[in-house]
Specification:
Layout (H helix, E strand, L loop, with lengths): L1 H13 L9 H8 L3 H7 L3 H23 L10 H18 L1 H10 L4 H22 L13 H20 L8 H5 L3 H13 L6 E2 L2 E2 L3 H14 L8
Antiparallel strand pairs: 1-2
Helix pairs in contact: 1-2, 1-6, 4-5, 4-6, 4-7, 5-10, 7-8, 8-10, 10-11
Length: 231
């Protein structure tokens, strides 16, 4: 379909330059579609970004709902859930870095994208709270306020993920520090903040013991970026 070609082309262009720098002509050339065809579908470039926003978050929701399906996690620990979440999130943000960057930057001033981000964050926080605070797992969390910890931990998790995968150019030695095991380290961050007792093998290591976790949790609280998770 012509619409899919336009959206796919826009994503490819956003892999190379910012949304502000990208022109309609460049996107249409990449799509093999005339500029006139663009304006028959969209009133302006912002409308295109809103369509990309809708498609991106539909894809994220579909992937996230599959990862957080309660049936999948019967009898499994919080650590099992969070490592799967971290691996999926790193994969999505890395593969979709261009469009994610464009949306996250525009979300600061665009109420449409802000609303999408709030809705998506609320959806996943609710799903995650249902899983992690389930009576079968709740005792694994030693944070003094488990309900708040799940939500605030989600914000810190995605704030840090955004910096490491989408805006890495501002950090010295980014590639060396992030390495190839970012998902494991992101899971470690969330687990330490929750004070989760479950064991988990990360890079052939075990998650630190409970006293070590409580110490690390204090560091995470101080240093992690608690900004809007997805937008």
């Amino acid at each position: 379909m012509t619409l899919d070609r336009i959206l796919d082309a826009a994503e490819r262009v956003l892999d190379e330059k910012s949304f502000t720098e990208a022109t309609v002509a460049q996107i249409m050339e990449r799509a093999g579609v005339t500029v006139g065809a663009f304006y028959r579908r969209f009133p302006d470039k912002d409308a295109l970004l809103h369509m990309l926003d809708d498609r991106f978050f539909r894809e994220v929701k579909e992937r996230g709902d599959a990862v957080l399906d309660p049936i999948r996690w019967n009898g499994e620990s919080i650590a099992d859930i969070l490592i799967a979440l971290a691996r999926a999130a790193v994969e999505i943000y890395t593969a979709k870095r261009g469009i994610a960057r464009g949306l996250f930057l525009r979300a600061r001033v665009d109420p449409v994208i802000q609303a999408t981000g709030r809705e998506m964050n609320a959806h996943f926080i609710e799903r995650l709270r249902a899983l992690l605070l389930d009576p079968a797992r709740r005792a694994e969390i030693t944070h003094p306020d488990p309900e708040r910890a799940v939500s605030l931990g989600f914000m810190m998790f995605f704030g840090a993920l955004r910096e490491t995968t989408v805006f890495g150019e501002i950090w010295p030695d980014h590639d060396e520090i992030v390495g190839s095991d970012l998902a494991d380290e992101m899971a470690r961050l969330y687990l330490c903040y929750l004070g989760a007792r479950a064991s988990l093998t990360l890079r052939n290591e075990s998650v630190p013991s409970l006293p070590e976790m409580q110490c690390l949790a204090s560091t995470v609280c101080t240093e992690a970026v608690a900004s809007t998770a997805l937008g």
